[in-house]
Design brief:
The complex is a heterodimer of chains A (about 230) and B (about 250). Chain A has about 230 residues and is mainly α. Chain A is about 75% helix and about 0% strand. With about 250 residues, chain B is of the alpha/beta class. Chain B folds into two domains: about 20-100 and about 215-250, 3-Layer(aba) Sandwich (D-Maltodextrin-Binding Protein, domain 2), CATH 3.40.190.10; about 105-205, D-Maltodextrin-Binding Protein, domain 2 (3-Layer(aba) Sandwich). Chain B is about 40% helix and about 20% strand. In chain B, the strands form three sheets. A five-stranded mixed β-sheet of chain B has the order 2-1-3-12-4, with helices on both faces. A five-stranded mixed β-sheet of chain B has the order 7-6-8-5-11. In chain B, strands 9-10 form a two-stranded antiparallel sheet. The chains are: A mainly alpha (about 230), B alpha/beta (about 250). Chain B: This is Molybdate ABC transporter substrate-binding protein. Chain B: Pfam families: SBP_bac_11 (PF13531). Chain B: GO terms for molecular function: metal ion binding; molybdate ion binding.
Chain lengths: ~230, ~250
C-alpha cells in the first residue's frame, strides 16, 4: 500500500474529528435520549423526528443548509461573529459542528433504546432508598445502560469517519485542516488516480468492517439488550 | 383498450409524419441553463426531442465507458471528448467546441473587486474583511486550473494561496462565495451574469489571455451514431439560434 503524506494527514484529521465529535455527542445525546425515553410531552414526537432528520436528508442538503447557517448572514454565523470566533465554515470546528448534527441520531437512538429497556423500576427503587436523582442516574442508570453508551459511541465514531457529503460542502478541502479521508478518496477517484484511491479506500474498508464486526460480536453476547441499530427503529 | 390502441397508432403516425426522433444528451453541469433553452428551441425548430442529463464530466466519462445510453456528450472540457474518441467510445471527426468558458473573480460585496483585480495584490486581506478566497479544485475542475494559472501569472501566490478554499466543482465554489463564507472567489462568468451584466456584487472578468482557454467540446457518442436527432442536435449547436443563447449566458464562442 502506498499512502502519501497527505493521505496520512487526512487519516489523522479524520480520527481527531471523529473522537471530538463522539465525546461531544455523548454529552449532548444523553440528556436528549433520557428525556425522549421518559417524557409524555406532546413535544416528544416533533423532537424525535428532528433528531432523526439527518438519517433521511441527503448530506448535500444538510451541508448546504449548514453553509448558509454558518455564513456571515446565517444565524450560527452571526452568533459566532458576535462571540468573536469569526465564521466556522472551512475550519475544524465547523466540521465538528456539522458532524455532531450528522451523527446525532446514531448517538441518540441506542441510548433511547437502552433507557427504555431499563424500565422505570431501577430508578424507583433507587428513589425509595433515598438516592438523589443525580446519584441514581450515575450509579444506577448509567451502568445499566452501558451497552447503549458503547453502541452510541461506536456508531457515532464510525459514522463520522465515513461522513462525506457534509464535509465536502462545508470543508473547503484544506490539507491538514478540513481534508478528511472520504474527501481525499473522492479527490483521488475524480482525478482518476485510482491506485492512490485504492490504498486509502482499503484502509477505510478494513476499518468499517472491523467496527461492524465488533458491534455484532458485542450484540450477540447474552444479557446485552437495548442495542438496536437506529435505522431499524427510527 | 381500443382507445389506447388508437392513441398508440395515432402517435406513431404523428412521429413518422414529423420524422421526429429523440436524443439523450449528457450535459456538463455548468451548461445547464443555456442547454435547457437550446433544447426548447431545438424541439420547436426541428421536432426532435432532446432528453437532457446534467452532471460532472468525469462522472459521464465513467458512465459512458460502462455503456450509458447517451448519444451526445457536451463536456466541460476538451480533454474528455478526445479521450473517449481515442478509446473508441465516440465517433471520430465529430468533435467541436460548442462554448468557451469565461472566468471571473467575484465578490458578493459591491466595489470590493475593481476592474484590474488590484484586490488580489492587496497585502492586507484581513483589513478588507477577506478571510477566505474560493476556487474550484485545480485537480478536478478546468475552472480551478485556470484560476491557479491566473494567480501565478499575477505573481500573487504567496499571499493568496494561504487564503484559498477549494470547491470540488465550480458549482460548489459559487455556493462558497454566494453564501459569503468566502468573501472572494474565482467562478464562471456564466454563473454571475445575465446578458453581459453582473447581476450582483462586484467582479473582474479575467482576460482570456491569462489562462489556457476553457474550451468545452461536444462529441457524438457511439450510441448516437445512427440517430438522426443526435446529428441534428450537433448541427443545431453550431447554428445562430444556439450561438445567441450561448453568448447571452456569458460564454465565448
Amino acid at each position: 500500500m502506498n499512502l502519501s503524506a497527505e493521505d496520512f494527514q487526512a487519516i489523522a484529521l479524520t480520527l481527531q474529528l471523529a473522537s471530538v465529535t463522539t465525546v461531544l455527542l455523548l454529552l449532548l445525546a444523553t440528556p436528549v435520549a433520557w428525556w425522549l425515553a421518559h417524557t409524555h410531552s406532546a413535544w416528544r414526537a416533533p423532537v424525535a423526528s428532528l433528531v432523526a432528520l439527518p438519517l433521511v436528508l441527503p448530506p448535500t442538503v444538510l451541508g448546504f443548509y449548514l453553509l448558509v447557517a454558518l455564513g456571515p448572514n446565517g444565524p450560527i454565523g452571526q452568533f459566532t461573529q458576535w462571540a468573536g470566533w469569526g465564521t466556522l465554515a472551512f475550519s475544524f470546528w465547523g466540521l465538528v459542528l456539522g458532524s455532531v448534527v450528522y451523527s446525532l441520531p446514531f448517538a441518540v437512538q441506542p441510548l433511547v433504546n437502552a433507557f427504555e429497556a431499563m424500565g422505570p423500576r431501577p430508578m424507583e427503587v433507587a428513589a425509595t432508598l433515598r438516592a438523589s436523582k443525580w446519584d441514581a442516574f450515575f450509579t444506577v442508570a448509567v451502568p445499566l445502560a452501558k451497552p447503549g453508551f458503547v453502541m452510541a459511541a461506536m456508531l457515532s465514531f464510525a459514522h463520522t469517519v465515513g461522513e462525506f457529503g457534509v464535509v465536502l460542502m462545508i470543508g473547503g478541502n484544506i490539507p491538514d485542516k478540513t481534508r478528511v479521508v472520504s474527501t481525499q478518496i473522492y479527490g483521488h477517484v475524480e482525478a482518476m488516480e485510482y491506485s492512490q484511491a485504492h490504498g486509502l479506500a482499503g484502509v477505510m474498508l478494513v476499518f468499517s468492517f472491523v467496527v461492524l464486526l465488533g458491534l455484532s460480536w458485542f450484540n450477540r453476547r447474552p444479557h446485552r439488550h437495548a442495542t438496536r441499530h437506529p435505522k431499524a427503529s427510527a | 383498450m381500443k382507445f389506447r390502441l388508437m392513441l398508440a397508432f395515432a402517435s406513431t403516425l404523428f412521429c413518422v409524419a414529423a420524422q421526429a426522433g429523440e436524443v439523450t444528451v449528457a450535459v456538463a453541469a455548468n451548461f445547464t441553463a443555456p442547454m435547457q433553452k437550446i433544447a426548447k428551441a431545438f424541439e420547436q425548430d426541428t421536432g426532435h426531442k432532446a432528453q437532457l442529463a446534467f452532471g460532472a464530466t468525469g462522472k459521464f466519462y465513467a458512465q459512458i465507458k460502462n455503456a450509458a445510453p447517451f448519444a451526445v456528450l457536451l463536456a466541460a472540457d476538451d480533454e474528455t471528448p478526445v479521450r473517449l474518441e481515442k478509446e473508441g467510445f465516440a465517433v471520430a471527426g465529430t468533435r467541436f467546441t460548442y462554448a468557451t468558458g469565461r472566468l471571473a473573480l467575484w465578490s458578493k460585496q459591491p466595489h470590493l473587486v475593481d476592474e484590474k483585480a488590484e484586490v488580489l495584490r492587496s497585502h492586507s486581506f484581513e483589513k478588507l474583511g477577506i478571510h477566505k478566497i474560493a476556487m474550484a479544485d485545480p485537480k478536478l475542475a478546468p475552472y480551478g486550473a485556470a484560476a491557479m494559472e491566473v494567480i501565478h501569472k499575477m505573481g500573487v501566490q504567496t499571499h493568496v494561496i494561504p487564503k484559498l478554499v477549494q470547491g470540488e466543482s465550480i458549482g460548489q465554489t459559487y455556493q462558497f462565495v454566494s453564501t459569503e463564507n468566502a468573501q472572494l472567489g474565482f467562478v464562471a462568468l456564466s454563473q454571475i451574469s445575465v446578458d453581459g451584466r453582473i447581476t450582483q456584487g462586484s467582479a473582474w472578468v479575467v482576460p482570456q489571455s491569462m489562462h489556457t482557454p476553457l474550451k468545452q467540446d461536444a462529441v457524438l457518442l457511439n450510441a448516437g451514431k445512427d440517430n438522426a436527432a443526435a446529428h441534428a442536435l450537433l448541427k443545431y449547436l453550431k447554428g445562430d439560434t444556439a450561438k445567441a443563447i450561448i453568448t447571452r449566458y456569458g460564454y465565448a464562442l
